[in-house]
Amino acid sequence: MGFQTLPGAGREKGEGDRPWWLVALVAIGLGIAAVIAVNDLYAQVFTTVSRGIGVTVFVTVVGFVLATLLGLLVALAGMSDSQIVRQIARFYVEVIRGIPILVLLFYIAFVGAPGFVSLYNFLIGPLVEGGWLSALQVRDVSLMWRAIFALMIGYSAFIAEIFRAGFQSIDRGQVEAAMSLGLNRYQRFRLIVFPQAIRVIFPPLSNDFVAMVKDSSLVSVLGVADISQAGKIYASGSFRFFETYSIVAYIYLILTIGLSMLLRRVEKRMRRKGAGR
């Protein structure tokens, strides 16, 4: 009797709650927007810092797309019939997951990029000597792309584990039934495994996407002109640290919360479609 009077009984905890947290956030956001509109200092800070939004969005989207593709390949390699391929995939995942993103950024930028340039110049050496191509310089590899590749590698290991868990969540009997119908491996993956696994994969994958928006701020250590770098430059020149970093936090909150709400809506729609089948 007492359990029936508890709020949320008979449904998932938190399901159906009024989004008062969102009302509070919107009210605070509108208040800050009003301050920016009427205060010249905050307006100037916002204008300056917002110039880095495009770079932040570009680095995040490109880095995440590349990380997703690489993570999918690593996950498929980890489920390969070949033990050697599986061990290589596991080695990659364990090593990359153990390295902090910031360390990976420095390593790719100042070790990986020069190593790549040296290898590239070695491979095209005969063409350079023949005057067909010119040698590549380390400065020709932009810091933005070094940062993107570092985020790609860093996140691909985590995304690979998300894909692996999603694929392995599919009942083995369905795969065996598809095999009995004569479907080849690619057809089983495309028609049976992936459409069901994507509903399991999407929530943690979307969480990683939001996390990359925040972790993209680390690229400022390489001098990439994102939101954090724009704020750092303005604050160091004006000594307005409180105003600058308040606006930086405000912009990141708009990006992450807006993206989280959008992805949550997509997740609910996928869940409803899956329940209707």
Summarize the structure in words.
The protein has 277 residues and is mainly alpha-helical. It is built from eleven helices and no strands. Helix 10 runs antiparallel to helix 11. It is flat, with a radius of gyration of 24 Å. The N terminus is likely disordered.
Distance between the termini: 35 Å
The helix content, as a percent range, equals over 70%
Portion in strands: under 5%
* Alpha plus pi helix count: 11
Q: How would a crystallographer describe the biggest sheet?
A: none
CA-atom Rg in angstroms: 24 Å
Point out poorly predicted stretches. 1-10
**Which overall shape is indicated by the principal axes computed on the Cα atoms?**
flat
Order of helices and strands: HHHHHHHHHHH
Give the helix/strand class. mainly alpha
Question: Please, what is the average pLDDT?
Answer: 88
Number of strands: 0
Main location: membrane
Transmembrane segments: 20-43, 55-78, 99-123, 143-167, 188-206, 244-263
Family: Belongs to the binding-protein-dependent transport system permease family. HisMQ subfamily.
Pfam families: BPD_transp_1
Descriptive key words:
single chain, 277 residues, mainly alpha, 11 helices, 77% helix, disordered N terminus, amino-acid transport, cell membrane, MetI-like_sf, transmembrane helix
Quick take:
With 277 residues, the protein is mainly alpha-helical.
Topology:
Layout: H1 20-38, H2 40-49, H3 53-78, H4 83-97, H5 101-123, H6 125-129, H7 143-168, H8 172-180, H9 185-215, H10 227-238, H11 241-276
Helix pairs in contact: 1-2, 2-11, 3-4, 3-7, 4-7, 5-7, 7-9, 8-9, 9-11, 10-11
